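Saturday, quiet lab. Running sequence design on the structure tokens for the scaffold JK sent over.
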């Protein structure tokens, strides 16, 4: 049952990056919309309004799996990275409330601009801290017995590798969101604007990805070394990169779902390459005593109950989620 729980954990993280990440990326696009702010705002609101709340269930499932199935991972992350975690959670709360008020508030006044600014800035902050936390977890700078506040609670995430990982995740979410948003409008000028932002996001993603590798060496993190010694991960990243020209051809032909699916596949390849070079390790500790999914696993009885709960729950969640998307998104796109 341990492997069943692990599969659900990895799937939940992927779906949150795919669906929730697209929502975060849309907010970042709105933040840098410039003179086209109102058009982008309307586009983002129409795209997100029906389904954005459902996307957060994946992070809830992830937290529950870690709390019940891998308590040592949950505990260490909650302690060592509690500052960026708190900042991330504050961003999630501010983002959600701001989007709700600006979309559903019956009174349309100057406060809508404040809500929109909070929503856009929070989208950037949540994406950045999400990536930063991932970078900190694998940085090898976390220590279970810190000798100072800085060593224990600041150094693991205030470093160039973790920061560059945060920037990369931001660009990855913007890339995914922009591909999805292209098909949300029939207005030619707006569509061309989104296409330009997609290309810019692709460039930033490539550059920030390169910076992750560079700062891996600068900060003495073994990420680059692990990647270069893992042939499967190299092949996967090459495939994800090689798929970019195909994606642009599909977008130019106006094929909505093929472009979305291919962008999702590219995201999957990137995350899969990351999973493979570290699995089964989760937290790389400073003393080398790394925490893995196997050493941190809960007792078998707990994993069995959790596994069956996830299996039964998925039989309810996935059909319901598909129906939600069909009602609000697929049918509308087809029409």
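Result came back. Writing it out in full:
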């Amino acid at each position: 049952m341990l492997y069943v729980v692990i599969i659900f954990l990895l799937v939940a993280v992927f779906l949150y990056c795919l669906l929730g990440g697209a929502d975060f990326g849309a907010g970042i696009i709105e933040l840098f919309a410039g003179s086209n702010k109102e058009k982008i705002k309307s586009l983002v609101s129409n795209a997100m309004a029906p389904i954005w709340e459902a996307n957060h269930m994946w992070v809830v499932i992830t937290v529950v799996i870690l709390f019940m199935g891998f308590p040592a991972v949950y505990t260490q992350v909650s302690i060592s990275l509690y500052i960026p975690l708190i900042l991330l959670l504050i961003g999630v709360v501010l983002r959600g409330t701001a989007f709700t008020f600006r979309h559903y508030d019956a009174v349309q006044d100057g406060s809508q601009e404040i809500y929109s600014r909070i929503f856009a800035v929070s989208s950037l902050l949540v994406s950045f801290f999400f990536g930063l936390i991932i970078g900190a977890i694998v940085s090898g700078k976390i220590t279970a017995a810190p000798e100072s506040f800085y060593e224990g609670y600041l150094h693991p995430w205030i470093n160039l590798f973790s920061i560059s990982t945060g920037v990369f995740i931001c660009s990855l979410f913007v890339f995914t969101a922009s591909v999805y948003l292209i098909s949300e409008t029939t207005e030619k000028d707006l569509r061309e604007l989104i296409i330009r932002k997609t290309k810019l996001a692709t460039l930033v993603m490539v550059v920030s990805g390169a910076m992750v590798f560079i700062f891996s060496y600068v900060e003495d993190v073994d990420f680059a070394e692990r990647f270069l010694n893992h042939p499967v991960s190299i092949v996967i990243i090459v495939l994800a990169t090689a798929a970019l020209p195909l994606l642009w051809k599909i977008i130019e032909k106006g094929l909505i779902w093929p472009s979305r699916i291919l962008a999702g596949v590219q995201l999957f390849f990137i995350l899969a390459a990351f999973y493979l070079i570290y699995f089964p390790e989760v937290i790389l500790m400073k003393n080398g005593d790394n925490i893995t999914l196997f050493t941190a696993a809960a007792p078998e009885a707990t994993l069995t109950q959790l596994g069956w709960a996830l299996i039964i729950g998925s039989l309810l969640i996935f059909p319901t989620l598909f129906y939600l998307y069909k009602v609000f998104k697929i049918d509308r796109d087809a029409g």
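Notes for JK: The mean pLDDT is 85. The chain is about 80% helix and 0% strand. Ask whether to fix the surface positions before the next round.
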